[in-house]
Amino acid sequence: MINVSDLKTVGKRMPKVEGMAKAKGEAIYAVDYDLPGMLYGKILRSPYAHAKVVSMDTSAAEKLSGVRAVITFKDVPKILFNPSNRYNFPPNIPQDQYILSEKARFVGDEMAAVAAESEEIAEEALKLIKVEYEELPAVFDPEEAMKPGAPKVHEGAENNVLALVPIEQGDIEKGFKEADLILEDEFRVTKQHHVCIEPHACVASYTSEGLTVWSSTQCPFQTRYVTAKALSLPDNKVRIIKPFVGGGFGGKDEAFHEPLAGFLSLKTGRPVKIELTREEDFNATRTRHSGVVRVKIGFKKDGTIVALHMRNIFNAGAYSAASPRITRASGSRPIGLYRLPNYKYEGYCIYTNVIPAGAYRGYGNPQQGFATEQLFDIAAEKLGIDKVEMRLKNAVRVGDINPLTKSPFQSCGIQDALKKGAEKIGWHNKKPKAISKTKLRGYGMAIGAHWTSITPLASEYSCATINLNTDGTINLMIGASDLGQGLDTVMSQIAAEELGLPLSDVSIYPGDTAVTPWDGGAYSSKSTHVAGNGVWLAAKDLRNKLTKEAARMLNVKQEDLVCRDRKVVSKVDSSKSVSFADLISWMKNNSPEPYSIGRGIFKMPTNCPTYIANFVELGIDTETGEIDVLKYVACQDVGTAINPMQVEGQMEGSVHQGMGYALMEDIIVDKETGEVLNANFVDYKIIPAKDMPRNIEAELIPTYEPTGPFGAKGCSEVGLTPVAPSIANAIYDATGVRIKELPMTKERIFTAIRQHKT
Amino acid sequence: MRSKFKYAFVNVKTMKGLFRPKECFRPETVEEAVCLLSKHDGAQAIAGGTDLLINKPPEIEYLVDISRLPLNYIKEEDGLKIGAITPIRELENSQLLSGAYGALSEAARKFGSWAIRNMATVGGNICNAVPSADMPPTLVAMDAKVKLVGAEGTRTILLAEVFVGNRKNSLKKGELLTEIQVPKLPPHTGVAFIKFARTSVDLALVNVAVRITFEGEVMKDVRVVVGGGVGPTLVRSKKAEEILKNQKISEGLLEKAAQVVSEELKPRPTSIRGSGYYKREISKVLLKRAIAQAQASSKGG
Amino acid sequence: MMIKLNVNGIDYEVDVKPHWTLLFVLREKLKLKGVKNGCGEGECGACTVTIDGKAAHSCLILASQAEGKKIMTIEGLAPGGTVHPLQQAFVEYGAIQCGFCTPGMIMTAKALLDENSNPSEEDIREAISGNICRCTGYVKIVKAIQEAAKKMRGA
To answer: Is residue B14 predicted with pLDDT exceeding 60?
Structure first.
């Protein structure tokens, strides 16, 4: 175990390596690329939730001056694909999309596309495309879609069931027989949109050398895999470059318009930019899965949990995308958090004619957390046990057997997180309930755990290479993706620490499938651990090569040499040292390998969750249903925090998104037509700065994960999960009203309080 | 909720057609502006643009940019005179809006977001004629009038008469709103404005403006105005005013007035921002709170 | 129509269509890519610039309306390799994550500090409520602005 306080760069609050470029407006995002001869692509979208295309006449659009291509389904390759396909994950998800749709399956489905000399001409061309649709019956609610006789969204999906993903552990029937208290309830969760401030965008350029796409993406290599398949191109002819990305949160986890823009570029012989408007982003990208979470849970009277049976029905929307994986993941969450001897999960994801759902920070965790964490509170109250005690009793500990890997958990800070959080919020020293005549105070808490990577369901691995420069500085190449969460900085810190270099001596070059080595992408909170280890291995490899040559040069033992302050120096005789620059210069004439490249290929051997405990103190105006969060405390175990400032930033950001999910964010779909009714910022509300709590405390609980780089684990998703249940539990504490449907808007709270009074 | 989409592509801005005005005129005088607005069909005045450039109406053929006209002022003259293109930010900060006029600053403070207030204008907020507009309720409660200059001459009408429907104002073709006139408020008058929305940067779900002139403890003269998603236009509740007039404030009285106000509202039963039921209930709460605040304001508090 | 725009101290002559917004002209004609397009409806604030020192959403201004005014974008905040205290503070205090909201956020902060050199936390939160940040939860942004204000006051 490494003593993190001895380290120079790792564990320190380093400013982001690209921070100044962003602060000066120099950072280039996909949408900022202007290539010579570039055309602008626009997409014709279906106004109907479910319709056959009877005829499509593009002749008028083609004739419009400035239009260079108009394409429809008949023009695109007839290759079915799934844009969320992962190369390293078993291919058991439906391949159910074409580049352009042959049939409209949701309002906003992509039916045709135009490439023109300007955005305005492209918009005008869209208006000229004449489409005759035959409207078909549509279904929007997943439980309705499962009924016999419901409209069929895709052939081959019986009762629109896209997938049924079960998980089982122990013996659920036996478990419930042992229970002294059994609770059963149903919770409804809604669609939240990622609202990345940078809308989805890409620029594709197809030349005789192949296809290059600059794309706002989380997973360049997976995007290459999908794009190559959709366009029948070999991998080496498809280059995906990830520039700076303006937020992802799971929303840019899939290939979106890379195949379409690539195809338009192929057809026109010119680069093509596709930039979605905010409205298109809301209407036709992805949302969090909405649906119903039904839970039956059994406890002994001392509060020990004996059985949990969860049945989720998730609304997948019009296309599969990653729905089966997310539905399954939702069911895997409780077994990483609690000691569950008997567990059964049934996850249904259902096709309907609405905007498809996809990956979103938490990946099924927030939905189940809203249910299970409230049920824990209900049980605690019925059994007369303190709610924090209830979690302490049931949460996993170091040494418990990890149900996924069948080996013990080696790091687990949930117990400490609970105790610290309770102390910080004043759980055992609560302030009085009445704030004023109409305002009541409530305290709530909830916990969460998030698996980092999808081991053992898939092989997770990441690679890094380090090129040494003649002056001893390094160029670090990684396939992994920084979307703003701080990955580039953290990776640079790991390399700098291992090689004894200041952070400024490391330049990082990420996310270019032609040049950087493989990484699966930013998902599952795994990058710090998996990509970080890849970088660590590469740095160790380089250190090994350098110390080996330095040992020869200085005539000392290699094992006595360390890398420190841009030098290789003997720890037994500090006069024996050589600067990197001098060593490299010596090597060119004196070493069998005159140049050094560090290589790291890391395969994730385990799956070690990150844990968080959230506590909230809030005030409720009982006359209006308004919530005022007075204090929010989040205590998270990320193993070693390679960069505590970045981790805090992720925790604070999670509180914001979690509060939005809890209190107001909701993609509203019209029950008659299936269209999104609030596809803009006036109607879809995000919490503004002046409504955020003034007092958010993000506290790091130090643990050490032996398999992680310098003891680190993943971080970024789990913070969102306990926010909604902690607020729901606090509302109950204040008013005696329990809300089981998201979002908990002012109106919903007001109505619930009114009904409770009568 | 009605379907919006009848065209072969999804984009609220382009579904109706594309915003492609032929020309943008930049008159230097009010007369020039009025002449342009009268002469051209499909001509639309633009000042702050904070509503027009969101909705981008395709029927606009000519833009008449009035942002350079000398209509940006707040002066003390028989009460207050406010130029039509005065940015909301000026109202937020103006020293002239003290005492009972302070409710106008409060309304300005709740308007949109900080940068939007630099751009949006009082005149634009009025002529837009959306029932959730933030400035009109307080102005109507203060019996404000507006000066309209047209090709046929100038007229002055009560602000309340501008609003005839959702996004429908009573201005004639070619007329330009140039000035808002707020009369002097009698002594012992308090005005309160409360806005209720989903967040602090949102269109009003319900906003309430109340103006009370006190004689001792008795409410001699009352105005009650409710805006928000409460119907096609804001609602001035004369019924509630009658209940409150010549009475002293009491819980029972406020309850009665609140009930009456909520019944006068005509919100749609369901909408994105909130149900009709919720809006009615909130209007009751806001009315009671606004009356208490108006009382405090009348005492200089 | 030919208009003259003064952006970051430089005079440009641009031929614009009547409906072109300032945002469109800044990004597509003057190639100032630091000004970002996040929504086109004046809600996200990513397009914020200052006009005669006041914060404004460039997506809701016609390019022609900006003639004769002094426009500043993020590129003009600290030209010639210098760094503005706000930029320094944003980097130092971790107020930047994905960075897409950052130019607009910094321009709003600049307009605030130029008007009020000692803003309270409430003043800061009020000013930045027209800038949506999806990454940070605003905690470190508020801190960075407070620290920059201190530095600029010489405190």
So the answer is: no
pLDDT(B119) > 90? yes
In chain B, which residue's Cα lies nearest the Cα of C69?
Answer: B68
Question: Does the beta-carbon distance from B199 to A688 stay under 8 Å?
Answer: yes
pTM across the whole model: 0.97
**Smallest CA–CA distance from C127 into chain B, residue:** B114
What single letter denotes the amino acid at residue A121?
Answer: I
Q: Which of A22, A194, A678, A680 to mutate to test the interface with C (most CBs of C within 10 A)?
A: A22
pLDDT per residue as tens digits for the range A344-367: 999 999 999 999 999 999 999 999
Question: Residue C145: which domain range?
Answer: 85-153
What is the average per-residue pLDDT within B274-291?
97
Of C40, C55, C62, the CB nearest to B115: C55
DSSP A395: B
Residue B229, Cα to own-chain centre: how many angstroms?
Answer: 13
State which H helix or E strand residue B169 sits in. Answer: strand B168-169
How far is the C-alpha of A356 from the C-alpha of A386, rounded, in Å? 41
Question: Between A and C, how many residue pairs show a Cβ–Cβ distance under 8 A?
Answer: 171
Alpha carbon of residue A424 to chain centroid: 28
Find residue A568's DSSP bridge partners. A563, A578
C34 close contact with A: CB closer than 8 A: yes
pLDDT tens digits along A557-600: 999 999 999 999 999 999 999 999 999 999 999 999 999 999 99
Q: Give the total number of structural domains in chain C.
A: 2
Query: Facing residues of B154 across strands?
Result: B149
Q: Which of residues 42-71 of B touch C (CB under 8 A)?
A: 46, 48-50, 53-54, 56, 63, 65, 67
Whether B274 sits inside 8 A of A624 (CB atoms) is no
Instruction: Identify whether residues B107 and B166 lie together within a single domain.
Output: yes
Give the torsion through C-alpha atoms of A51, B56, A39, C49, to 10 deg.
-130
Class for the domain spanning A4-27+461-603: alpha beta
Question: In whole angstroms, what is the distance from residue A621 CA to residue A737 CA?
Answer: 13
pLDDT in tens, C6-27: 999 999 999 999 999 999 999 9
Task: Check if the beta carbon of residue A157 is closer than 8 Å to that of residue A150.
Answer: no
Which of B182, B208, B242 is at the close of a domain? B182
B267 touches C at CB < 8 Å: no
- Cβ contacts of A50 on chain B, cutoff 8 Å: none
Report pLDDT digits (tens) over C50-102: 999 999 999 999 999 999 999 999 999 998 889 999 999 999 999 999 999 99
Q: Please, which chains are in contact with C (at least 3 CB pairs closer than 8 A)?
A: A, B
Of the candidates A641, A601, A634, A614, which has an alpha carbon nearest to the alpha carbon of residue A411? A641
Q: Are A547 and A561 in contact (CB under 8 A)?
A: yes
> Searching chain B, which residue's CA lies closest to the CA of residue C62?
B49
Of residues A566, A567, A568, the one with CA closest to residue A551: A568
Instruction: Report how many domains make up chain B.
Output: 3
Subunits next to B (3 or more Cβ pairs <8 Å) are: A, C
Contact C128, C141 (CB under 8 A): yes
- Give the per-residue pLDDT at A280: 94
Q: Identify the CATH assignment for A290-455+606-757 out of 2.60.40.420, 3.40.50.720, 3.30.365.10, 3.40.50.300.
A: 3.30.365.10
The per-residue pLDDT for range B179-201, each reduced to its tens digit, is: 999 999 999 999 999 999 999 99
Q: State the chains in contact with A (3 or more Cβ–Cβ pairs under 8 Å).
A: B, C
Which of B16, B20, B199, B254 should we substitute to test contact with A (largest number of A Cβ atoms within 10 Å)?
Answer: B199
Q: Model confidence over A110-162: pLDDT tens digits?
A: 999 999 999 999 999 999 999 999 999 999 999 999 999 999 999 989 999 99
Average pLDDT, chain A: 97
Backbone φ and ψ of A299, nearest 5°: -130, 155
Average pLDDT over residues A455-469: 95
